[in-house]
TrEMBL record:
Pfam families: Nitroreductase
Name under which the protein is recorded: Nitroreductase domain-containing protein
Record's keyword annotation contains Oxidoreductase: yes
InterPro entries named among the record's database cross-references: Nitroreductase, Nitroreductase-like
Organism: Lysinibacillus fusiformis
Domain of life: Bacteria
Family: Belongs to the nitroreductase family.
SUPFAM superfamilies: FMN-dependent nitroreductase-like (SSF55469)
Secretion signal span: none
Coiled-coil region(s): none
Length: 208
């Protein structure tokens, strides 16, 4: 049996990290909204969906952000920068999330009550550092989904973990429970990305 090379396969391999963007091209906000709505189909810990977003499109604000993001050119020249954040108080949304699942007929009432109680009891007792690790992991899942969807829509992206998170938090006046995780520049490529090799499977995987 071989892997069926579907459109997803093509999108995965066509997606590259682009750092040169057409600074005159602006993605319509409704397309950015559509992108994020579709991306939220990503999985998350206990389905608590801790991701939060700041979408920076304003030119002056992108210029300010560039200084926070180690002067990376793509912050300013891309159509937008999607800041992916994590909410360490995501468990406070458990009741609304699982009640909605119940209302939609996805779960029964007993499961709804169990999931609400379990989420509140477990996550509210976890140390902040553990919660930060959880939301960072979940932010990574949705970030990859954002980049694949963007490529499928005809746009290019590059993820950036290299930025001053303390300065970002201060600049955007984030609450204590909101953690900045990654910045994703998105737009139309002005130059192709470099190809890159991958480590052979025999060096990174064991089959037991």
């Amino acid at each position: 049996m071989t892997v069926t090379k579907s459109n997803l396969y093509k999108v995965m391999h066509d997606r590259k990290s682009v750092r040169k963007y057409d600074e005159n091209y602006k993605i319509p906000q409704e397309q950015l909204e559509e992108l994020l709505v579709e991306a939220t189909s990503a999985p998350s810990s206990s389905n608590l969906q801790p991701w939060r977003f700041i979408v920076i499109q304003d030119e002056a604000m992108k210029k300010e952000l560039r200084a926070i993001a180690n002067n990376q050119e793509q912050v300013e020249t891309s159509s937008a920068v999607i800041a992916v954040l994590g909410d360490t108080k995501m468990y406070e949304n458990a009741e609304s999330i699982f009640t909605k699942n119940f209302d939609l007929g996805y779960i029964n009432e007993a499961t709804k009550d169990l999931m609400i109680n379990n989420s509140m009891n477990l996550y509210s007792q976890l140390p902040q550092e553990v919660l930060k690790n959880i939301v960072t992991f979940d932010a990574g899942l949705i970030s990859m989904q954002i980049m694949l969807l963007a490529k499928d829509m005809g746009y290019d992206t590059v993820p950036m973990g290299g930025f001053n998170k303390e300065a970002f938090t201060k600049h955007f006046e984030l609450a204590d429970h909101i953690v900045p995780v990654i910045l994703i520049a998105i737009g139309k490529a002005a130059a192709p990305a470099y190809n890159s090799s991958r480590i052979e499977l025999e060096h990174i995987a064991k089959f037991m």
